[in-house]
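quick one, 93 residues, struct below
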Amino acid sequence: MLEVLLFGTNECGSCSLNETRIKDVLKDFPEVQFRHLDVEKNAELVKKYQVITSPTIVIANNGEKMYEIKGIIERDRFHRELEYLKYKALGII
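---
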């Protein structure tokens, strides 16, 4: 299962902007799960995915990190990257 994990904090304006953009892109990928995770409340996942800054977006397939983006995302680029990773996860490319 492909999943987008957004690591951030409640006070992070860039995190909120990323969340809006991610949710917009995911309208084209209904099979992809999304979770917005507070770094202060999810220490185990922060450690697992080696998150060191907010915002950080991790794209994982069956719990294994495939890709990581730090900072603010650009919508169209994120869409292209997610599409590529979707096909990679399916073994098509």
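The chain has a mean pLDDT of 96.
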